[in-house]
Design a protein that fits this description.
Structural class: alpha+beta
Distance between the termini: 32 Å
Shape: elongated
Largest sheet: 8 strands, mixed
Helix content: 40-55%
Oligomer: single chain
Strand content: 15-25%
Low-confidence stretches: 580-591
Mean pLDDT: 82
Radius of gyration: 40 Å
Length: about 625
């Protein structure tokens, strides 16, 4: 990475960090159940008007709940007496039954009264009951409306009594094994149409992101297999699967497909994402396995702890919760710190990749900061802040891996091209030396017979038989062998490639003209020069075979002591108009020939241009040498 680029790179990373903060702040403000427009609330009584239900979103019942700690109450409990609530809470403010002290498990009762105006009561309202962690009974106006045994968590839609202006909600929950206990997420109230729209939006978002992750993972895995680049594509495919497992819960819970097994799998996939992000970034940075192993081993231990945590939770609930929460926080922030240190260490080696990954780390870090700044947050549609950050990071990684795969495919093709032209050059050298040996042998035979020829010619002169001498000289001239193939320039490899294709063109009746002026030594790679000339002449020869009155004109020389200039013209079909990014070849490498020419030109700070005019295709290539060419 050039030093002059550093301020621009840091500015780019700062912009990514700022945009991430703006994104998560906007999500907190506009896509949050706790900041959505709320009805009037007075203690545990919530007044709902038709105006509150007029939008496209339901009303979220987050505030004003009476909380009865460690009490499993029923409607009869309130008929016989008036239990006193331990607190009035906002749902999500506590994630268990402890209220900051005592055991997070046991039993608790939540109670709220809704007062509807006449128009609201006539709308035919439904209650969206979110996942309840534990066995529960929900009573609406003293009637049992829903119940669950705690083995399967799901989202339910429950119809409220019609033409009733006052609705009492009473939820009694018992739980002794979940990390979250009781009512953790706010219920929602709205018409059936409004709730259906909300469910559709959630399922659509989840399906879109999960399908996109699946497609990216499968595509890059197949591409990695083809380009032999599994080092990054395989862990990325696993990351996509982990993202799907961690983020598909809206669909799973809405369709009542989940259970304890899914809850454990969801948590494992969630924390496995961070390990796989570390692994993918390490592979992309070229970090050795020896350096990566300690961090990945620690991350693996955290993932293992996620699986065994429920067993520990049952024996030591308070202590284990505190330790587990601390462990998870350290794990998340440790992942960000590890990635940041990795990018700083490998910044120069990774070049542009470091900027892309740095943006991903910035988004990830911003999500953790905003998660702390906005504790009361639950998205109405979409994922939590960290889930969104992981998805954006996943998109960044897919772009980086796709670019790497394309480069690997291009390099693989270039290696195949170099191998092909190296073999061709060796074959041409063998043919050249075979011809040279034949020429030497013929010359040796001629020199052996030269004395006899001189005697015959001298006798003809002495006898004055000039007619016989003339006939003999004519016959003798036909016996003199031709020398080895023509010489087009002093550079041996270029001479072989030019000679090979021009001889093929002449054999096909194509008129050729060549002016090549290259010294024996050039500051360009021998293989690069062969690939450049071979691709250019091969394309020109193929195009010439398709037209009448074909010709091929090649000019290649050194100009101003620092530039190699190639200009190749040939007749082509009227509709032929390839660019430096295309060629006319068929097969697996269709369209890469001229791309190779452009890549070689770019490698030597040069240029490659094509144009078609009056059915004549012209390729112009310039290569720049750092030092003067002697």
């Amino acid at each position: 990475m050039k030093t002059s680029d550093s301020p621009r790179n840091w500015l780019f990373l700062a912009a990514a960090l700022l945009l991430a903060f703006l994104l998560f702040t906007a999500s907190y403000r506009f896509n949050n159940k706790y900041t959505a427009s709320a009805p009037e609330e007075n203690g545990s009584i919530v007044r709902i008007s038709a105006a509150d239900l007029s939008g496209r979103r339901p009303v979220f019942l987050a505030k004003g709940w009476e909380f009865y700690q460690y009490q499993l109450l029923t409607p009869d409990s309130f008929a016989n007496a008036q239990p006193i609530p331990n607190a009035r809470i906002t749902i999500g403010q506590v994630q268990g039954f402890d209220l900051g002290h005592g055991s997070p498990h046991g039993s608790a009762t939540y109670r709220q009264t809704l007062v509807l105006d006449t128009e609201a009561a006539d709308k035919g309202l439904f209650l969206e009951l979110p996942e309840i962690y534990g066995s529960y009974q929900l009573y609406i106006n003293r009637q049992l409306a829903a119940a669950g045994d705690g083995r399967r968590t799901s989202v339910q839609k429950i119809r409220l009594p019609e033409d009733t202006r006052q609705v009492e909600l009473l939820l009694a929950v018992s739980d002794d094994r979940h990390f979250y206990s009781g009512l953790t997420y706010p219920p929602a109230l709205g018409t059936e149409h409004t709730l259906n729209l909300l469910w559709t939006a959630r399922i659509t978002y989840t399906a879109f992101t999960c399908c996109l992750a699946l497609l990216a993972g499968v595509f890059l895995l197949v591409l990695g297999l083809k380009t032999r680049g599994l080092a990054g594509s395989l862990p990325f495919a696993l990351l996509c699967l982990a993202y799907i497992g961690a983020s598909s819960y809206p669909v799973v819970h809405m369709l009542s497909l989940g259970g304890d097994y899914w809850y454990s799998l969801e948590h494992l996939c969630y924390y496995l994402q961070f390990l796989l992000i570390m692994l993918v970034c390490g592979r992309l940075s070229g970090l050795s396995s020896r350096v990566q192993t300690p961090a990945l081993a620690l991350a693996g231990l955290v993932c293992a702890a996620v699986l065994v945590y429920p067993l520990w939770l049952n024996r030591f609930p308070l202590k284990s919760m505190a330790v587990f929460s601390l462990l998870i926080d350290v794990y998340k922030w440790g992942t960000v710190l590890y990635l940041a240190v990795l990018l700083i260490m490998r910044f120069r080696e990774m070049r542009g990749v470091a900027i892309a990954l740095g943006c991903g780390v910035a988004v990830f870090g911003a999500s953790l900061v905003c998660d702390r700044l906005f504790p009361l947050y639950e998205p109405i549609v979409g994922g939590w802040m960290v889930e969104t950050a992981v998805f954006l990071f996943l998109l960044i990684l897919s772009g980086v891996l796709l670019n790497r795969s394309i480069d690997a495919h291009r390099r693989l093709y270039q290696l195949e091209e170099e191998s092909r032209y190296t073999k061709l050059k060796l074959r041409l050298e063998e043919d050249r030396y075979a011809g040279l040996r034949e020429h030497i042998a013929a010359t040796s035979r001629l020199r052996h017979d030269l004395r006899q020829h001189y005697r015959l010619m001298q006798r003809s002169l002495e006898q004055g038989d000039y007619a016989q001498l003339s006939n003999y000289l004519e016959a003798y001239a036909g016996e003199i062998p031709d020398g080895p193939g023509g010489r087009y320039c002093a550079h041996q490899s270029a001479n072989l490639i030019i000679g090979y294709y021009l001889e093929q063109a002449k054999a096909q009746g194509i008129h050729t003209h060549c002016r090549a002026s290259l010294p024996e030594q050039l500051p360009f790679g021998d293989t690069d020069l062969c690939v450049l000339l071979g691709n250019a002449l091969e394309n020109a020869l193929e195009a010439s075979l398709l037209v009448k009155e074909a010709f091929l004109t090649l000019n290649i020389s050194i100009q101003n002591t620092r530039f190699l200039v190639l200009r190749l013209s040939n007749r082509c079909l009227p509709d032929t108009a390839p660019s430096p990014g295309r060629s006319t070849k068929d097969g697996d490498h269709s369209g890469i020939g001229l791309s190779s020419i452009s890549a070689i030109a770019a490698k030597y700070q040069g240029s490659a241009h094509c144009q078609v005019q009056d059915s004549v295709f012209t390729l112009s290539v310039i290569l720049h040498a750092d030092n003067a060419i002697g």
